[in-house]
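Hi everyone, sorry if this is the wrong subforum. Our group has a chain we'd like a structural model of before ordering constructs, and none of us has done structure prediction before. Sequence below.
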Amino acid sequence: MKKLLADAGYRRNWIAERIERLLDALGNFAAVQSLSINACRGGENTFVIDDWQGAASRAELLGFLQKTDDVYLIYIHLILHCEELGPDGERKKLEIKCGGSIQFGIDLDNNGSLNTDDETPMYFALGLEVDIYAPLSWAECRDNTELATLNGPRLSAFLQRLEHQIPVEFIEVEASGYTAGRYGFLAVDESERS
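Answer:
Right subforum, don't worry. Here is the predicted structure as tokens:
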């Protein structure tokens, strides 16, 4: 696969296809808020969409990716689609702007060629800026079971879609102080909630 991806034309189409699959995989988990792309020749923020406008922004993004050989970082800010319980106990929609991000990185050398010496010259990372999916929070009230129960299934379904549709391989969780796994946050025992 690395040999195929070393070909700039193949790589740019492959990246565009994976990003299109990613946009489809977002589903009810999140929406794109904004994005930026870094490329070797254009530098940081070679391509930016500050306010995502659905199909029009998607077409603009895919058009850029299909004609740009030296993209090395795609950074996507997410609006998370969540739920909370209202005072009446009814579920309410909750949108969290800049609640998460996705990075898709490609290891290119200074000439814009794929670094084939790297074992994994591409990576995908999901970052969450909120505890809404975790049963144990670092907020004043540590027990976050209610919100995690409402929202955890969305995260889990999204991670499963990523694994199957893009596909991506789960490598690790960088979540110091959180119990997390391949498909989201894990339940904690009672002693950890207080």
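For your construct planning: The chain has a mean pLDDT of 92. Residues 145-165 form the longest helix (21 residues).
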